[in-house]
């Protein structure tokens, strides 16, 4: 709270200096200053709120994680505000002369008014630029975090699916079925082996994919259920209905989501010839795909929302505003998953070997630290340029702005030494060298012991 009040007072002081020295309002008494200040802040707040709601999201789409994109978007927002501020300051100048000073306005005076308004708008735009730069940098970081969550969700789903497929029980049952088929029906054994390899191939092919065509996922689900049918025989039946939509080529789905749902059905329900387990996969509309099964719950099952459902729900939450719908009745369990029609834009993924993950993490942290330093340097240059201009316009007898330049410069140099790992007295990489030195000493001691 105190920091916010301090910022408002500092901002009001900057506005006063701009009104007095740059805009050159001659009748700037305290009541007039308060009126100008409230009017200026009100116009800026109303306009920028409207600007953010109307065009902020469109500008945010232009952010791609690079520093240049943040500066470009910030420059656009600042340019629009500069035009607005020039008009507002011109009105202030005219009001100060006509309404308060009761003076006449000549053509030459209008020329000076435009020049003063332009100069005042320029200085205010520097402050607005810093605000928007901070804002869009924050938006870009949130976008990057969201993308990393999507990547994490995809990797988690792939791991979960592979874990389910490579589960010892699944392999044990599959090998038992295959062993029986080899003796009883070699042709069916060959088909079973082909279906098993096709299942594994599909799972491995989904690496680094956010979405896959619905048709491919349905083909995979059919193959997967047929493998289960060989094991459960008449105890398991299924139906895949796509008649609601004639052309499903444009519809997409999160990869391996059907496999997780089918695995969930088998895990939580019993299947017998007296009460077969029936699975229905049906396209209800262009928006949702229904996966339905009749209930024959195992006694050990207390809750239906397992890891598979949570995995799918979290991944869809990151991709679309439409959630998955879970519904349980006395006889059926229904899961409706959204069908997507837009391709998710490619994410900034760096593919590295497992043994290079630590190096990648360190490299990304180093790049992030360097970006923060350059942002600090940009702020230092812009703010101090603004203060020096103000100092020269008000009075060049005492350069008080150089105090800020010097004091802030000490902090900037300290930041640079920290980022680039340089010690003024001990040299570059001193800390790493000493760590390696002590590690070598401890190794030698251990060897002697």
What do you see in this structure?
- The protein has 449 residues and is of the alpha+beta class.
- The protein is 67% helix and 9% strand.
- The chain has twelve helices and nine strands.
- The strands form three sheets. A five-stranded mixed beta sheet has the order 2-4-5-7-6, covered by helices on one side. It has a two-stranded antiparallel sheet with strand order 1-3.
- Strand 8 and strand 9 form a beta hairpin.
- Helix 2 packs antiparallel against helix 3 and helix 5 runs antiparallel to helix 6.
- The longest helix is centred in the N-terminal third of the chain and has 59 residues.
- It is elongated.
- The relative contact order is 0.07.
Describe the structure concisely for a colleague:
The chain is α+β, with helices and mostly antiparallel strands. Helices cover 67% and strands 9% of the residues.
Elements, N to C (H/E): HHHHHHEHEEHEEHEEHHEEH
Rg measurement, Å: 33 Å
> Which structural class is indicated by helix and strand composition?
alpha+beta
- CA-CA gap between termini: 60 Å
> Judging from the principal axes of the Cα atoms, what is the shape?
elongated
Strand order of the largest sheet: 2-4-5-7-6
- Mean pLDDT, nearest integer? 75
Task: Report helical residue fraction.
Answer: 55-70%
Tally of DSSP helical segments = 12
Strand content: 5-15%
Helix and strand arrangement:
Elements: H1 2-22, H2 30-60, H3 67-100, H4 107-165, H5 168-184, H6 186-205, E1 212-213, H7 214-232, E2 236-241, E3 252-253, H8 257-268, E4 277-283, E5 288-294, H9 307-319, E6 325-328, E7 332-338, H10 357-394, H11 401-419, E8 422-423, E9 427-428, H12 430-448
Parallel strand pairs: 2-4
Antiparallel strand pairs: 1-3, 4-5, 5-7, 6-7, 8-9
Helix pairs in contact: 1-4, 2-3, 3-4, 4-8, 4-9, 4-10, 5-6, 6-7, 7-8, 10-11
């Amino acid at each position: 709270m105190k920091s916010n009040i301090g910022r408002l007072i500092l901002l009001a002081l900057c506005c006063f200096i701009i009104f007095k020295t740059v805009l050159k309002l001659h009748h700037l008494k305290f009541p007039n200053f308060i009126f100008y200040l409230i009017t200026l802040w009100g116009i800026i707040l109303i306009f920028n709120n409207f600007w953010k709601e109307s065009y902020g999201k469109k500008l945010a789409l232009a952010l791609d994680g690079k520093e240049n994109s943040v500066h470009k978007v910030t420059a656009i927002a600042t340019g629009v505000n500069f035009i607005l501020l020039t008009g507002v300051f011109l009105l202030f100048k005219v009001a100060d002369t006509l309404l308060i000073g009761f003076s006449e306005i000549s053509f030459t005076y209008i020329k000076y008014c435009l020049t003063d308004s332009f100069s005042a708008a320029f200085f205010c735009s520097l402050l607005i630029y810093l605000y928007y730069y901070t804002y869009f940098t924050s938006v870009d970081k949130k976008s990057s975090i969201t993308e990393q969550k999507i990547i994490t969700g995809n990797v988690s789903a792939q791991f979960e699916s592979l874990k389910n497929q490579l589960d010892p029980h699944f392999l044990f049952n599959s090998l038992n079925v295959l062993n029986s088929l080899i003796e009883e029906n070699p042709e069916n054994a060959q088909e079973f082996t082909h279906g098993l390899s096709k299942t594994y191939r599909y799972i491995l092919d989904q690496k680094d994919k956010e979405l896959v065509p619905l048709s491919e996922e349905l083909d995979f689900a059919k193959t997967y259920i047929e493998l289960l049918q060989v094991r459960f025989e008449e105890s398991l039946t299924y139906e895949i209905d796509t008649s609601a939509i004639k052309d499903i080529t444009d519809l997409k789905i999160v990869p391996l989501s059907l496999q997780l749902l089918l695995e969930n059905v088998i895990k939580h329900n019993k299947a017998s010839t007296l009460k077969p387990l029936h699975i229905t996969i049906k396209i209800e509309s262009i928006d949702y795909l229904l996966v339905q099964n009749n209930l024959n719950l195992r006694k050990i099952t207390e809750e239906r929302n397992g890891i598979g459902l949570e995995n799918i729900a979290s991944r869809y939450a990151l991709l679309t505003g439409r959630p998955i719908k879970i519904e349980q009745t006395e006889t059926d369990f229904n899961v409706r998953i959204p069908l997507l029609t837009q391709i998710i834009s490619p994410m900034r993924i760096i593919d590295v070997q497992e043994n290079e993950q630590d190096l990648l993490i360190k490299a990304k942290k180093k790049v992030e630290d360097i970006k923060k330093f350059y942002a600090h340097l940009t702020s230092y240059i812009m703010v101090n340029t603004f203060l020096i201009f103000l100092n020269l316009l008000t009075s060049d007898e005492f350069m008080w702005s150089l105090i800020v330049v010097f004091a802030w410069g000490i902090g900037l140099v300290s930041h640079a030494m920290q980022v680039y790992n340089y010690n003024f007295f001990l040299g570059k990489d001193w800390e790493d060298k000493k760590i390696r030195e002590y590690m070598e000493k401890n190794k030698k001691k251990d060897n002697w012991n």
